[in-house]
Amino acid sequence: MADNKERAHGAWRAAERIKRLSDRLVGIGPVGIGLDGVLAWVPVAGTAYSLGAGGLLLYQGVVAGASLPTLARMAAYLLLDSAASVPPVIGWAVDTLFPGHLMAAGALQKDIEARHGPSALPATWYGKPGKRAKPVRITPKTI
After folding, report:
1. Are 59 and 45 in contact (CB under 8 A)?
2. Least enclosed by CB within 10 Å: which of 35, 68, 91, 133?
3. Can you give the pLDDT at residue 30?
4. Cα-Cα-Cα-Cα dihedral sign, residues 120, 141, 97, 34
5. For the chain, which residues score pLDDT lower than 70?
6. How far is CA 37 from CA 6, 49, 86, 98, 120, in A?
């Protein structure tokens, strides 16, 4: 049982990394942009990144034992995000602003927290390498 919990919390942390990298590298208030938004303007690279990051999120969902409705919701967000990057210019703009990876990761994290309790980020998450920082608890209110 503890092994399942640790595996689920590992998936929670992986989802946190993917959502920040994809949709929140730079954030101003509620709007953020990440690699998914930047690469959306590069014709094949944007779709490839979106599908790759989405596949990793779905894999983490399976590893964590997420429920089928959660996996379906994640797949819908990721399909919309990846499909938006296909049409030129207008689709790229939509993909830049649509936080599909963030929404899919959030759905996975809520599922994990509902079954295994809240997860905490490693102590060095925000600190510099080698410097110990206080552990940060991430809840829906802090995101």
Report:
1. no
2. 68
3. 81
4. negative
5. 1, 122-143
6. 31, 10, 13, 8, 27
User: b or e along 88-98 (b: 16 or more beta carbons within 10 Å of the residue's beta carbon)?
Assistant: eeebbebbbeb
Q: What is the pLDDT of residue 133?
A: 46
Neighbours of 31 (CB within 10 A): 11
Which residue type does 142 have?
T
Give the 3-state secondary structure of 30-58.
CEEECHHHHHCCCHHHHHHHHHHHHHHHH
| 73 contacts 63 by C-beta, under 8 angstroms | no
Structure tokens at 28: 């101003």
| Cα separation, 16 vs 99, whole angstroms | 13
Measured CA to CA, the distance from residue 130 to residue 58 in angstroms comes to 32
User: Residue holding tokens 């938004």?
Assistant: 37
